Amino acid sequence: MMQPLYAIYGASGFGREVMPLAREQLAGAGIPADRLVFIDDNPVAPVVNGQKIMHYGEFLAAAAGERYAVLAIADGGVRERLAARCALDGVRPWMVRAANVVVLDDVEMGVGGILCPFVTLTSNIRIGCSFHANLYSYVAHDCLIGDYVTFAPGVKCNGNIVVEDHVYIGTGAVIKQGKPGQPLVIGKGAVIGMGAVVTKDVPPGVVVVGNPARPMGRVERC
Length: 222
What we know:
- The structure is a single chain.
- The protein is of the alpha/beta class.
- It folds into two domains: 5-94, 3-Layer(aba) Sandwich (Rossmann fold), CATH 3.40.50.20; 97-214, Hexapeptide repeat proteins (UDP N-Acetylglucosamine Acyltransferase, domain 1), CATH 2.160.10.10.
- It has three helices and 23 strands.
- The strands form three sheets. Strands 8, 10, 12, 13, 15, 16, 18, 19 and 21 form a nine-stranded parallel beta sheet that branches. Strands 7-9-11-14-17-20-22-23 form an eight-stranded mixed beta sheet, with helices on one face. A six-stranded mixed beta sheet has the order 3-4-2-1-5-6, sandwiched between helices.
- InterPro entries: AcTrfase_PglD-like, PglD_N, Trans_hexapeptide_repeat, Trimer_LpxA-like_sf.
């Protein structure tokens, strides 16, 4: 029976950080490293960090029983478009999770997520599909995280917070804890700047920066 083929979609910086985690995870399942590749639409070399790079078409044409891809692309909108493309072509999502991730009680997470080293998810949390939690980020109790949300390194998402779809939260940002029945809400497509301290709701599509975080404009979408 033909072995499955696994891919990290994106061979830029984040993809190269995720690759060794994926390699270790698959090795633990008895899957050899040569069944793991990068997909990149503009590859800079045939091999990066010991793993082959394929164009998407090459990946679809390669001999495989089943194909899996995790999307290591920071932009949630791009991730959503690539996820739809993969689904149409029968490429299944998979999750990459570092060995030292801490997940406590009653945590549900959608498909296609990436949990980097030292990430913590505490209790009573719901997370949508294709969530990125980079190094040292945490999500505390009673949070609801939407689809295609990105946490850069060191994001502190405290309890009773709603983060809607396509939100990007920059490195070291802190989100103040909400209240039971009255969560702090980060609206769809908002961007939280690096190091921002968010103490109140952020409207959809708004960019906030600073301590305390203040609006600096709106997200420009292609």
